[in-house]
UniProtKB/TrEMBL annotation, chains A, B:
<keyword id="KW-0804">Transcription</keyword>
<dbReference type="Pfam" id="PF13377">
    <property type="entry name" value="Peripla_BP_3"/>
</dbReference>
<keyword id="KW-0805">Transcription regulation</keyword>
<dbReference type="GO" id="GO:0000976">
    <property type="term" value="F:transcription cis-regulatory region binding"/>
</dbReference>
<keyword id="KW-0238">DNA-binding</keyword>
<protein>
    <submittedName>
        <fullName>LacI family DNA-binding transcriptional regulator</fullName>
    </submittedName>
</protein>
<dbReference type="GO" id="GO:0003700">
    <property type="term" value="F:DNA-binding transcription factor activity"/>
</dbReference>
<feature type="domain" description="HTH lacI-type">
    <location>
        <begin position="2"/>
        <end position="56"/>
    </location>
</feature>
<dbReference type="InterPro" id="IPR028082">
    <property type="entry name" value="Peripla_BP_I"/>
</dbReference>
<dbReference type="InterPro" id="IPR000843">
    <property type="entry name" value="HTH_LacI"/>
</dbReference>
<dbReference type="Pfam" id="PF00356">
    <property type="entry name" value="LacI"/>
</dbReference>
<dbReference type="InterPro" id="IPR010982">
    <property type="entry name" value="Lambda_DNA-bd_dom_sf"/>
</dbReference>
<dbReference type="InterPro" id="IPR046335">
    <property type="entry name" value="LacI/GalR-like_sensor"/>
</dbReference>
Amino acid sequence: MATIYDVSVLAGVSLATVSRVMNKNTNVSEKTRKKVLDAMAQLDYRPNAIAQSLASNCSNSVGVLVSQLDGPFYGPMMTEIEASLRAAGKHVIIAAGHSNEAQEKEAVEFLLDRGCDALILDVEAVSDDYLIALCRQHTPIVFINRYIAEIRERCVYLDNELGGYLATRHLLSLGHRHIAYISGPLFKLDARQRLSGHKKALVEFAVAYESELFYEGTFKESSGSDGMRHLLSLQRPFTAVVCANDQMASGAIATCLEQGLRVPEDLSFMGYDNIPFPQYISPKLNTISNPIHEMGKMAALWVLKHVYNKADVEVTNRFTPSLFIRDSARRLP
Amino acid sequence: MATIYDVSVLAGVSLATVSRVMNKNTNVSEKTRKKVLDAMAQLDYRPNAIAQSLASNCSNSVGVLVSQLDGPFYGPMMTEIEASLRAAGKHVIIAAGHSNEAQEKEAVEFLLDRGCDALILDVEAVSDDYLIALCRQHTPIVFINRYIAEIRERCVYLDNELGGYLATRHLLSLGHRHIAYISGPLFKLDARQRLSGHKKALVEFAVAYESELFYEGTFKESSGSDGMRHLLSLQRPFTAVVCANDQMASGAIATCLEQGLRVPEDLSFMGYDNIPFPQYISPKLNTISNPIHEMGKMAALWVLKHVYNKADVEVTNRFTPSLFIRDSARRLP
DNA sequence: CTGTTAGCGCATTCAA
DNA sequence: TTGAATGCGCTAACAG
């Protein structure tokens, strides 16, 4: 591997001059610039990014920490982040925290140690205090899907309570009065907020909350199935089910269909997140939009703006969900 | 940020000694080791990974390049790779190539420049020659989803032709004789191989290949819908459709259901990849397994074995697909 | 406009 | 067992 030194020798200039042309420093005559460029080409020179980072204290890379690497939720988010950052010549180092406190912390420290210029974190298991302390570090950090008042200008998040409210209100407005709820794991803030919105809508329509019709799932398809089986076993009447995400809704609907129930004729459903797949199933799922890709993009823009002084755009912190009406809920006669 | 120098001063030892205890070098007396460890703890010392990489020429990180960051295919693969590597104390830098030659090359060079100890590549757009040349570099590289004879021991791949064969043979064995085919983009090797297996099965059953019943899609849901609409518009009889992946199959089935066709009563379907979601839709999709997560794991093991001299496991290069029979195809009377 | 000189934080000889 | 010295490849003052 050729080094900057080899280039300088071949070009007959000093080391510093080579560095200057690399960094587009204008104080180089066209003639010497060309000599250097030629030498670089001839040696197939590639700058050593590690050495650049060490010397400049800037790695041109930003660390991204998500809960999982797979799934319909984080994929689009990472895609947007990567695309936005790459378009600005920055690169992305991705790690997974697996919703586990130790792993999340370890990943954060890894990214910090790797000299990332900034971090974009989607973390669920670590405490608010930990994150607030983290912000006192010199590496700038943005948070996705999390709202912490003390550092609110670094948070990019969805109004999950509003989404939960919209989902349930839609069913209520269709005449449903006995509505089951398959929740995400309640240790997650977004799951709690969605549930809170659900209850708010019930109150608004003066419908009692039936705690028997509540099931705490895991946000995965299989727990939607499990939840549905549980609810059906109750022998307690209900005409609709709100699921805290589309994956659980899909699992729940599949279970209904297996048991010979029709959707939405026998049971109406609402999902949440508007992930791509359920558009292609039958019945098409009603859901709440979750502009996760836009939030990813916004986090990337935040970094571009605050860390790299690019992108003079306005950063929106709070995103608003909206209702998608398709074929999985019907109006009660 | 405390440096190794700060630690050495506080501990009253030399810089080299601190380095020794960090690297678990045994030639340090218990007493001084303890002094150093104490100093580290006191200063909350975290080694600078960048500096370590530069000095040791080893970054403890491996680069992973996939086509996309989202989707049901690459997600599980990345998850396995990350988990296997992290368990060994190694880290992962992920980039996306977007099935585009320039972007794939750029990403490869980025990962190389970042000082990755090894690369795991899932690339589609670059040529075999480029990859063969890449292998002459000093950074070890392993390929997923690609077979190149000259560097076969670095390839981890699926027998796609066999999978295509199994899919079509299943339908043929159920009595289908007019089988449409919705293909992946033919510039991708796996799409061509799956199609080749399809034709092989037809030959075996002495059934003519009807080129009118062929549609070249993109591997995305929407192209499954498009393909289905095209096939239906042909007014040419067929009783089954083989789709080159599950996503297109889902799109195609959705379109059929929309148009009032029943699956599998009116039309039988086969998918490919066995992605999670279609298990939760109705009808449950027949498909071909694609052990992408195992392939990801195997690639990680390859790196652990050949680069870090860990994991004395046997590396399997070729994976064999198998048939999953569920509810989307019926036997013809 | 260009060259010289110091580091960046750490690993690694080579002596002691 | 420990310390001093050197260098990894590059950037960034500071001179000239």
